[in-house]
């Protein structure tokens, strides 16, 4: 396992301590979860961008043509 040190503004640190005390966690655990969540988000965006580059509009239109041309149900309207 590796270690990093970060400087956190006092206001954020105070809030971090407040939140972790309430859920009986540790600041380290909270930061690790936040890091994992952010990495997951970035990796997902990169993956979707890469998939979009490989997309073929013809294939999309072919798949879309198979969808029924009907009005949506009331519960499925915007």
Give the topology string: H per helix, E per strand: HHH
- Approximately what portion of the residues adopt beta-strand conformation? under 5%
Poorly predicted runs of 5 or more residues: none
Class computed from helices, strands and strand pairing: mainly alpha
Termini separation (Å)?
48 Å
Rg, Cα atoms, Å? 22 Å
Mean pLDDT: 95
* Shape label: elongated
Structure commentary:
It is a single chain. By secondary structure, this protein is mostly helical. The protein has one domain (10-66). Helix content is 64%, strand content 0%. The chain is built from three helices and no strands. The longest helix is centred in the middle third of the chain and has 28 residues, at 27-54. The radius of gyration is 22 Å and the shape is elongated. It starts with 9 loop residues before the first helix and ends in a 13-residue tail after the last helix. The model has no long low-confidence stretch (mean pLDDT 95).
